[in-house]
């Protein structure tokens, strides 16, 4: 069984679609039928006992509220966009009832943008990048020690040959103005330099912006950028600079045009002038499972063709990368992997083998908005030994660190988060449990009637149904615990004309259900008879279900 990737707290928030057991694109008549079906179960007039009447009134009011929201196109548009909190937002009373659902969504998005802009005015966006170049060529020096003063028994020399630090922050001044300050420091083999830039971006409209700025470093620097959406799928951007240096005035222009070819595909044409002029054509395809990038560069002094491919493995939060670059400056082949080890941390390693660049191991650690990069020069020539050790050693180190350091920390944090969720929503869970018990109690008459009808026609009879943190299949008794609840009665009451349909949503929102294990993976196990034949199935919490099915039949052995 696969993991359930639903949001941990979603089962504690009311989901009107799940409660009525209708799809999110259900028409109004289907919603009305679901409401009427539940009303026959929970309307207070259907119950004589005072205690049952009080419980029925609570559940019926919830049913009525869900129906009133989903039957009204305006309220439904708000609910679909932002959930229950949207219905409780101040200011909705000023929206005209004549507005369409799409206009309501756009209105809310406008209000949301305003709130976001106010929030951004109080927040900076720090970004940092530190690159440390390491020279480790002495580890794989292929030359012998021919001279008398060589010391073959000494330790290999590993040194830091260069370092670069980039840092920037943003400060939203108004809804249209954003200022930023950035700095750069670098040193290589004892020679260093640094720059500092201050820019301000002004948003002209939703389709265009301009950015002006200046800086200092190798001399006074003037900067100008502009962006414009030309058509629905086309944009253009231009970056220019003027540097007043000791050797005179230097200028440069980068002009880019981008075209959205289709969903996930972009084409770019870039013209660059300055100390190294070039014309670049590139194509990028980005999907949920892979990313492809093809570029052709014609320039002075060098031209090249490059191809890169990344395979995304969503289930393991990993990307496998490979690329090749060939041109007048030589050939480089690169392969590597990237792994997301936590919500805010990503590690990556890549091996680059080329002529004349040699063998370079690239390590990268990203934590939130800070990135640390370590290019390690293993050899000046593409020899087999540095390629082998540069590939195997990082893999072994990562496996050991992940197994004995990262995994224990992540598991401890996950358990602490689950405990925090349970403690936070303890009272809410008690309320949900009480509501579910009351709903099951009110279903007793309907359960007996529906089950009797299904038995008489040899239809769909629910033998057993369990919901929660299941650990076994085929033996319902083995899973009964505080984290598993019996939902046989609620499931039987959902049967209509010997069919059961449950739509894609958390089952904890169904009448008679609740979440017995907040933050844990949950499953629904059903054992049923159809035409007096035994069937059984287990599905994930958010997985849709339609029974009976021939594939669920239990074959006697």
Summarize the structure.
With 557 residues, the protein is α+β, with helices and mostly antiparallel strands. It contains ten helices and 23 strands. The protein starts with 15 loop residues before the first helix and ends in a 10-residue tail after the last strand.
Give structural notes.
It is a single chain. The chain is α+β, with helices and mostly antiparallel strands. It has ten helices and 23 strands. It has helices at 16-20, 28-42, 50-71, 73-82, 84-87, 101-120, 384-424, 426-442, 444-456, 488-493; strands spanning 127-135, 159-172, 177-188, 191-205, 208-216, 221-231, 234-245, 248-262, 265-273, 277-286, 290-300, 304-313, 318-327, 330-340, 345-355, 358-367, 370-379, 460-468, 484-486, 500-502, 523-530, 533-540, 545-547. The strands form three sheets. The protein has a 17-stranded mixed β-barrel. The protein has a four-stranded antiparallel β-sheet with strand order 19-18-21-22. It has a two-stranded antiparallel sheet with strand order 20-23. Helix 3 (50-71) packs across helix 4, helix 4 packs parallel to helix 6 and helix 7 crosses helix 8. The longest helix is centred in the C-terminal third of the chain and has 41 residues, at 384-424. The chain is elongated, with a radius of gyration of 32 Å. The model is unreliable at 1-10, 90-98 and 144-148 (pLDDT under 50).
